[in-house]
């Protein structure tokens, strides 16, 4: 059995991972009885953590926002600085920590007092970052989506696709994926009855929460690989499968998750899946890579490559 101090930290961690728990669930996870859970919750409350009781036969608990910031070893100014820093990092300013920043921001804003949340929003609203061109995503939208993924709550939002009119969507969110330039939401589309990938920057207004749902089996072991395949291959007219004669890491450095999905074959080769609306674009991509390759699909890509070779040879002959 955990010592009291260690058990309190474990209890606090559980309350942050999920929106609400029943007393028996917490007792089972911590290997104690329900009475001990009640005493531990009272201790957390005495330390300033806003743990609320939920009605029901089994009873339950939820960690929410209180009037005062719980003791996180941060004063008000430090809490504001951390929140602003996480929002900035979530928008891709610092490569490699965007998804982690969203998870941390979701936890922090869950318990951030209203007065501090206003300060964060004011500072964010009156700060103009000088960043590169490309779509931007509001940090509030990301935290709403991340919390819905965590709590298994449906989301309603308006989605503006590349083609066609904006439409209302109701989804069961699975997770967020950041590709380095864009954020994608992987979710079960209730009306389509299928898994879909949504670009978050095409959700113009903050999503609203809907009913709870029972989590489904994810569409793939890795959501990152799923998104890479969806946006690099499945949406295009032509879909190519090739073996690239180079290590996967070397190929990844000359491509991106939104242009190609890669799988290692061995230390010297990898499998590439890519797509485009024209075969010329696939040929250009392959020439840019600078590695030898074998074409598996589609058959017409081989003919198109031969035509490109013929044009280049003719250009050389003209110069001679």
Topology:
Elements: H1 4-17, E1 20-22, H2 23-30, H3 34-46, E2 51-54, E3 60-63, H4 76-90, H5 98-111, H6 114-125, H7 139-151, E4 153-159, E5 167-178, E6 183-189, E7 194-199, E8 208-212, H8 223-234, E9 238-244, H9 248-252, E10 260-264, E11 270-276, H10 279-289, E12 293-297, H11 299-319
Antiparallel strand pairs: 1-3, 2-3, 4-5, 4-8, 5-6, 6-7, 9-11, 9-12, 10-11
What does this protein structure show overall?
With 320 residues, this protein is an alpha+beta fold. 43% of the residues lie in helices and 22% in strands. It contains eleven helices and twelve strands. A five-stranded antiparallel beta sheet has the order 7-6-5-4-8. The model has no long low-confidence stretch (mean pLDDT 84).
């Amino acid at each position: 059995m955990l010592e009291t101090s260690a058990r309190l930290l474990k209890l606090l961690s559980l309350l942050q991972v999920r929106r609400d728990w029943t007393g028996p669930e917490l007792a089972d996870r911590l290997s104690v009885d329900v009475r001990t859970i009640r005493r531990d919750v009272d201790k957390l409350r005495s330390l300033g953590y806003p743990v609320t009781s939920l009605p029901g036969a089994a009873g339950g608990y939820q960690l929410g926002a209180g009037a005062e910031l719980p003791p996180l070893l941060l004063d008000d100014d430090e809490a504001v600085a951390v929140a602003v820093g996480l929002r900035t990092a979530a928008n891709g300013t610092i490569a490699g920590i965007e998804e982690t920043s969203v998870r941390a921001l979701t936890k922090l804003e869950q318990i951030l007092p209203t007065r501090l949340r206003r300060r964060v929003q004011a500072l964010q609203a009156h700060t103009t970052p000088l960043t590169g061109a490309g779509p931007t995503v509001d940090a509030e939208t990301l935290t709403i989506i991340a919390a819905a993924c965590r709590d298994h709550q449906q989301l309603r939002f308006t989605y503006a696709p590349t083609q066609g009119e904006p439409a209302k969507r109701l989804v069961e969110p699975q997770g967020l994926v950041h590709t380095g330039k864009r954020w994608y939401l992987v979710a079960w589309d209730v009306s389509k009855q299928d898994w879909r990938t949504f670009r978050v920057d095409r959700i113009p207004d903050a999503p609203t929460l809907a009913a709870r749902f029972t989590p489904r089996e994810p569409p793939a072991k890795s959501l990152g690989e799923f998104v890479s395949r969806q946006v690099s291959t499945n949406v295009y007219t032509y879909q190519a499968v090739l073996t690239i004669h180079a290590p996967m890491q070397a190929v990844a450095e000359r491509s991106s998750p939104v242009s190609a999905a890669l799988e290692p074959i061995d230390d010297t080769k990898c499998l590439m899946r890519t797509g485009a609306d024209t075969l010329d674009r696939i040929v250009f991509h392959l020439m840019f890579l600078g590695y030898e390759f074998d074409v598996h699909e589609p058959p017409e890509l081989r003919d198109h490559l031969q035509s490109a070779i013929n044009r280049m040879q003719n250009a050389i002959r003209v110069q001679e």
